[in-house]
Each structure stands twice: as structure tokens, then as C-alpha cells.
Amino acid sequence: MRGKKIVTFGELLLRFSKPGQLRLTQGDMFTSKYGGSEANVAVSLATLGEEVDYVTRLPDTPVGQAGVMCLRSMGVSCNHVLLGGRRIGTYYFEPSAGMRAAKVIYDRDGSAYSELKPGMIDWRTILADASVLHVSGITAAISQDAADATFEALDVADELGVKISFDINYRKNLWKYGADPRETISRMLQRCDMMFGDAIEFEWLCQRKQPPFTATDSNFQMQMDEYGEWFEDIHRQFPRCQDWLMGMRNMVASNHHTLTALLYSPLTAPALLQAPILDIPDVVDPVGVGDAFMAGFLHAAKKWPADKQMQLNYSLAAAALKNTVPGDFNLSTHEEIMDVVNHARDIHTLYKVTI
Questions:
Q1: pLDDT tens readout for residues 296-323
Q2: What is the Cα–Cα distance from 121 to 116, expressed in whole angstroms?
Q3: Residue 344 has pLDDT above 80, yes or no
Q4: HSE of 308 in the Cβ direction (CA atoms, 13 Å)?
Q5: 136 - beta bridge partners?
Q6: End-to-end Cα separation, the chain, in angstroms
Q7: Per-residue burial over 312-335, b = 16 or more CB atoms within 10 Å of its CB, e = otherwise
């Protein structure tokens, strides 16, 4: 890989929730935390000791400045964050409880990031010493200008030989400016070298029904032949991508989940690998689990470049631990992740991740 730095690009958000399990309609107090998919990846990478540069646009207000201070306190470089615009994007999160599903309400119209335009970011300078650029479907979902700025970044990364990491991150409620999300995300996928998505997002992208993942313990048998055909088909459509990562979650109860993941790398043997099935009996906060997975993979791919199974197991362990951390950011250390990996090496062993 060229350089060492990893660059992530997206919108920093301010997240509001009511304390505990209160609904958004209850109580008179909100708690707030900073987050957002690409920022979550940046913080996870910095926690794992990686050099990471986060790029976004924030209002030059105390709220925007506090967001930059928050990221810098986590070890993330914000030297290329643009200041301008009127407001920061926000979202409201109501956690699941019992039979009640979690709820997310976005408020991102007119945010500083949504008004970002091509030419405003000096991508040649930012990516000159970068090894990876990480973006997601959300990066292009907010506005046409933001989408154009995203493709500008991809163009420069291609020209400079920077690897492109991509998370499908399909959020139906964000695509409001008229673009076709499947067509736009497909164009992004044509440029990526490694990608992540959960099984539901793969199903949406490929318009192909996923095999069910209903694991309640480690005895669950994955339909690996069917998944293999699925990956072969999507790789024919997007031949540049050499690492296809799929996460799967079964919600046994609102605070009890099982997780596993697959990695399809067509140039290695075997091409299709499965991670252990992990059991999280005390989920604290499931937001940002996919971001923790992608950060874990980017770190593991640098640390163990020839060991695909280790890359997959490490990524899943990072994602599992994120369920135990409140807020968007995964603050799990390398040592904590390795503890989970070392207790779950055997693919037939169920390891319980607890706080």
C-alpha cells in the first residue's frame, strides 16, 4: 500500500436521544453525542493506532467547533475540515426495547455538508500521502452537490492510486434530491477495491433474496453454496472489488443479538470465508456496528495482509464489541478485540461478548 494515512469523508452529525429507554415523546431532556458513519470509522481507526484524516464541512459555530474538538480528542486529524454553512446535520435516535423497534429520525436538510460543492476540497493535497479513501452510500445520499463532491474525491483517488473502501450504507429516507440510489451506489461500487454491507443491503442492491440468518447459537448452518453463487454474481457486475464483506445480525431479542460475517476474496483460496457466530446477550447500543466492522477490516488488512480469515474474524470482533459501547463511536482497543478473536477462533465455538 502507498502511504500510511487513511482518509474518511462524510457528514458529522449531532445525535439526540432521551435518557435510558425513554421514547422521544417522553421527558424534557435530551442527551447529545457526535457521530456519523465515516466519522465513526475514523474514530475506530484512531483508537486502533492508525493515522486517520477526517474530511467534512461544518458550520463555523460553537456546535461545529465542538464537533472538531471531539474528533481531535479521539486522535483524529481534522486539518482538512471545511468551516462554513449554516447548521450541523442532526438525527434523533430512540432505542429498541422489548418488542418496540428502534427509531431514527434525520434532520439534515440545509446542513453545511449538504451544501458542499466540487472544487471546495483540495483532494490532491489530502490524498497525496494516503493509502485508503473510505466513503459510503450516505456520502452521496444527502444532496446532488455532495454526490458530485464524492465522485470528485473518487476520481482523484483513482488518479493517485489510492485504494477505495466503501460501505453500502443504504438509508432510504436520505435519498430525497431525485437521484436513483441503486444507480448511484452502483457507480460508486464500480470504483471500490473493498466494500462492506449487511445482508439486507446486499439483497437491496442485487435484488436477490438472501438466505435466512436465524442463528440463536453456534450450531446454525450457513448456506455457503448459495452465498458463494451470490458473491460470484455480484463480482461479475463489479470486477474491480477484491474484498466483499457481508455482515449478518439476528435479533433474538431487543438487547440480545447474534452476529456473523462473510468475506469473499476471488483471488485467494478459499475465496469465501465465514467468521464465527458471536452472541451478544447484553446489547447496549447497536448504532455504528457496521462502521466498527469496516474500521476493523482496514486495520486488520494492514496488520495481517496475507491472512484473510484473521482479517474477517478481527472485523467481526470489533463490530461485536461496538454493541457494548454507548454512542456512535467504537472505543474498543486492539487488545480487547484480540481477546474476542482469541476466544472465537474455532468457527463452531459460540463466544459470548459481555460488558
A1: 999 999 999 999 999 999 999 999 999 9
A2: 9
A3: no
A4: 19
A5: 167
A6: 36
A7: bbbbbbbbbbbbbbebbbbbbebe
CA distance 41 to 123: 19
CA dihedral of 178, 287, 169, 66, whole degrees rounded to 10: 70
Q: How many CB atoms lie within 10 A of CB 281?
A: 14
Q: What average pLDDT does range 130-158 have in this prediction?
A: 97
Residue 253 to residue 20: CA distance in whole angstroms: 17
Please state the separation of Cα 45 from the chain's center in Å.
Answer: 12
Q: Which amino acid is at 163?
A: K
In this structure, are strands 89-94 and 103-107 parallel, antiparallel, or unpaired? Answer: antiparallel
Task: Please give the mean pLDDT across all residues of the chain.
Answer: 93
Reported as a single tens digit per residue, the pLDDT across 147-206 is: 999 999 999 999 999 999 999 999 999 999 999 999 999 999 999 999 999 999 999 998
Cα separation of 303 and 214, whole Å?
32
Q: How many CB atoms lie within 10 A of CB 212?
A: 11
* Measured torsion, CA atoms of residues 314, 316, 319, 323, in degrees rounded to the nearest 10: -120
Grid look-up 484473521 returns: 310
**C-alpha cell, 301:** 488488512
Q: Letter for the amino acid at 349?
A: T
- CA 23 – CA 324 distance, rounded (Å): 21
User: What is the DSSP-derived secondary structure letter of residue 167?
Assistant: E
Cα 109 to the center of its chain, rounded Å: 22
DSSP letter assigned to residue 241: -
- Nearest Cα neighbor of 215 from 169, 247, 168 is 247
Provide the 3-class DSSP secondary structure of residue 191. Answer: coil
Is the pLDDT at 33 greater than 50, yes or no?
Answer: yes
Categorize the per-residue pLDDT at 218 as very low, low, confident or very high, splitting at 50, 70 and 90. confident
